[in-house]
């Protein structure tokens, strides 16, 4: 029985691959019959040849924060089905088709040229409670061929770092509820595997004394939001080259 289901899934995914390779973008409903949208997303992002295909989720499902985070790691954007959603979906698709460069692997932060070897293959932990920030940072970092692990709370960041030793750098939002970025960074420095790895603090605005406060909490550096892409990439290259 297991082998029969496995063969059936292989045939289904084979059809998915064949369709995807002929198109420039994918609009996916999560509530598909038979083969769920979640299975399709996992399959697409697990195939190196398909990872550069822009993926837009179009759904009527009420998403939990965990589901939003999972989609944020794997998709270009999420459009919730409502009165104005067809127009928004059309705008999102048009934007991708008119400017496909952000979806191409090997582009830099401006959408042109090759990724920097100092960043390609590095693993970055993004800690932010705002899904929009996670979306933006993930898209930008993946264009540099970095592997992004995202969490939405300080405690999840600590749990993640305690369970693995392969994360090269962390980006931590300072203004988070419950456990803020200062406390989070301080506790991250107590984890043996992350005592000497770079942490970049993300602040809402550059205020006098912010840098000192971030450094005192354990940050290696800090950058104000909205994040300036070239500045952040330069900062990452500097810290990861050492």
Strand order, largest beta sheet: 5-4-6-7-8
| Sheet of most strands | 5 strands, parallel
* Rg over alpha carbons: 19 Å
- What is the tally of helical segments? 9
Beta-strand level of the residues, as a percent range?
A: 5-15%
The parts where pLDDT drops under 50 for at least 5 residues are 1-10, 100-113
Whole-Å distance between the termini?
A: 53 Å
The general outline is globular
SSE class? alpha/beta
Succession of helices and strands: HEHEHEHEHEHEHEHEH
Helix content: 40-55%
Fold and architecture overview:
There is one protein chain. This protein has helices spanning 2-20, 37-46, 65-74, 85-98, 131-142, 154-163, 181-188, 210-217, 229-240, and strands at residues 26-28, 55-59, 77-80, 123-127, 147-151, 169-173, 199-203, 221-224. The chain is globular and about 50 Å long. Residues 1-10 and 100-113 have low confidence and may be disordered. The protein has nine helices and eight strands.
Please specify the SSE layout and strand pairing:
Elements: H1 2-20, E1 26-28, H2 37-46, E2 55-59, H3 65-74, E3 77-80, H4 85-98, E4 123-127, H5 131-142, E5 147-151, H6 154-163, E6 169-173, H7 181-188, E7 199-203, H8 210-217, E8 221-224, H9 229-240
Parallel strand pairs: 1-2, 2-3, 4-5, 4-6, 6-7, 7-8
Helix pairs in contact: 3-5, 6-7, 7-8
Summarize the structure.
The protein is an alpha/beta fold and 242 residues long.
Core attributes:
8 strands, three-stranded parallel beta sheet, globular, disordered N terminus, alpha/beta, five-stranded parallel beta sheet
